[in-house]
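Work Package 3 (structural annotation) set out to generate three-dimensional models for the target panel prioritized at the project kickoff. During this period the team completed the workflow that converts sequence records into discrete structure tokens, so that structures can be stored uniformly alongside our sequence database. As a representative example, we reproduce one entry of 223 residues exactly as it appears in the project archive.
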Amino acid sequence: MTELIGLSGITVLTQDGSRRILDGFDLHIEKGSLVLLLGAGGSGKTTLFKLLAGEQTPERGEVLVGGISVPSLSGGKLARYRRSLGIVMQDAPLLENRSAEEQIMLPLEIEGMSAERRHERAQAAIERFGLSDARRKLPKALSMSERQRVAIARAVVREPLVLLADEPAAHLDANDSKEIARLLLHENLRGMTVLIGTSDEHFASYFPETPVRRMESGVGINN
């Protein structure tokens, strides 16, 4: 298969330079794969997502996504690259004055997609994520599970190159966490490349066939 994500020899220091968050870290992910990063807070998972999103650059090493050197991007090229990603960060914010359906359509509006196509894409995502009953609700009326499903649906509605999901089941109970895992697995089965970061061993157990990369502060350890 074709490699989509390649991180080689990545070293990242804390802001004050006193500690290495990642040290000579390598990660290679093939297109269409689902990979789980498992580690406690401070082990480098969120840093990896920031590197892939072009929000942070490494002290040393190479970050390639789809053959593009992410640290070399700036301005309009970086903005276009970021639009090719679906990103769900922990506690992803929703716009309080937009309904669930409008939240999901927002990336399509930004792209300039026609109203008809926006509604078609949003409807498909609403159905996949079980949000039909919540489509008209504002964020304050959504459950934690619904909020997270809206955030993920918004991230994938443009059919991005890759979905980056950092702690996608944070603050959810076991049943809702299992449902989030099922939905992420389904997006992968549809052909999407998915990278998930979690500190929750129980959540990780919902991905029994998924490659797991165990993380520790300063290093990455293959499982």
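The chain has one domain: 3-222.
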